[in-house]
Design a protein that fits this description.
Oligomer: heterodimer
Order of helices and strands of chain A: EEEEEEEEEEEE
Helix content of chain A: under 10%
Strand content of chain A: over 45%
Distance between the termini of chain A: 41 Å
Strand content of chain B: over 45%
Order of helices and strands of chain B: EEEEEEEEEEE
Helix content of chain B: under 10%
Number of strands of chain B: 11
Radius of gyration of chain B: 13 Å
Distance between the termini of chain B: 37 Å
Largest interface: A-B, 23 and 25 residues
Shape of chain A: globular
Number of strands of chain A: 12
Structural class of chain B: mainly beta
Chain lengths: ~110, ~110
Amino acid sequence: AQTVTQSQPEMSVQEAETVTLSCTYDTSESNYYLFWYKQPPSRQMILVIRQEAYKQQNATENRFSVNFQKAAKSFSLKISDSQLGDTAMYFCAFILTNSNDMRFGAGTRLTVKP
Amino acid sequence: KAGVTQTPRYLIKTRGQQVTLSCSPISGHRSVSWYQQTPGQGLQFLFEYFSETQRNKGNFPGRFSGRQFSNSRSEMNVSTLELGDSALYLCASSTTGNEQFFGPGTRLTVL
């Protein structure tokens, strides 16, 4: 069974600084996708970034980037130049290719302080 | 393109009642997945529909059911509501089931 672990229930960062959220996953499969979703207080889940397991290059979306270590089954999210609007719950998610059962971690509550 | 919409946004029911939640996917998306989010259990997969067929189901009792219509809109039904069914129910749509786009959710409270 696929599992996703986020070991940091809460984190905080000063505005304009950089923060890294950790995620590890467990699977015996080799073809899958990884995602980071953001859920602000409005509860709307917003896709932040995605990574295909077959791609060695780490995904980047503006201030958001990942460090994907396939052998270590690690998928961390780095947020640069943190902004107040980044305050939210962040969920790491995993899905097998050609599957439809997305597995989520427990989430990390990130607070950006002014 | 309009995003995923869910109705109603908030719902209050009493134990024993049944409830139907609705989800309209992004235009062109044929896959609709449903998730339950609670503080204790986190986000859990309920089921997924593609072209009116349920392709996968999570580990939930038979009181939880769903369907999908020819226009890809989906409904989720919970019968004989229990207090533990209080949760945020999220719907997500996608073209293939992989990259999923979420709706705003329906907050269900069971009294």
